[in-house]
Amino acid sequence: MQKLFTLRSFKRKLPANRKTFRSFLTRSEKTPPRGIDKLTSVVEPEVWQEVECLTCANCCKKMTPTFTEKDLKRISAHFNVTPEAFKAQWLEKDKNKDWVNVKQPCQFLNLSDNKCSIYEIRPEDCSGFPHLAKKRWVEYAHVHKQNIDYCPATFKMVEKIMQRVGPLTKK
Hints:
The structure is a single chain. This protein is mainly alpha-helical. It is built from eight helices and four strands, in the order αααααββββααα. It folds into two domains: 7-60 and 132-165, no CATH class; 63-128, no CATH class. Helices cover 54% and strands 6% of the residues. The strands form two sheets. A two-stranded antiparallel sheet has the order 1-2. Strands 3-4 form a two-stranded antiparallel ribbon. Strand 3 and strand 4 form a beta hairpin. Helix 4 (69-78) packs across helix 5.
């Protein structure tokens, strides 16, 4: 069995690799390497052999999902409150006018075991995170560029893709 890539390992490796990874993501967004969309589907299962989300939960500790209207209706119904009451208690609008958590870590994160207390009804943004194998790389490279600072799985995916396609040079 492969050794897990932990949050501690991630925090140690990120500073030395951030600039190179972000540069690769910027270049690959503008000029995607041939076959990168298929490559992400190959690399994703490898990443999940090395990264265990419950040992990390950094996304829930350091980031916030965007709550859609559908999320608000579903989650507020679960708590038997109106969407307005739910928003008043837990959310605020960000600079993009999206509904996001007021505080970090997420109010639904159980810090003792890193599990989500509303996992079955969690926001769509959470259920898709970290968006590793979305169909078109060019549509998600900017998301990976943001997530690289928080998510060991995103870090591992970019690392593995770079190993396979090599560095992208400036044109």
